[in-house]
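Bumping with the actual sequence this time:
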Amino acid sequence: MLTAVDTSVLLDVFLDDPKYRPQSARALKRCLAEGGLIACETVWAETASAFADQALFLNAVQRLGLQLIATQDNAAFSAGAAWRKYREKGGRRERMIPDFLIGAHASHQADRLLSRDRGFYRSHFKNLPIIDPLKAS
């Protein structure tokens, strides 16, 4: 089972968030045991911003077992289409294209998404199974 990971979960662990780290770390460990962990370029870049040094970042994601998987053309198109639909329905620019790229990447290239932002992804990627680390057993 391939799990795409959202930025929030990774930052919980890498920034040692006192509120969310324990649950996010457990969920990552469980998902890794059930298959692989992947991230799209958006998550990779957002997570890398928390590190001052590229070598430290690469070491951290390697220890976690996280792999960068490039977004396929169909996933990128799907992200654009979902964002256009969102804007046509009156959606404001609070949600930018990166959120849609993360969801589309997970929807097309993984079996599920590990994220604390369940509402957004459930609304726009209805067929994508979402694991919330705060609700995971």
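The tokens above came from a reply further down the thread. The radius of gyration is 14 Å.
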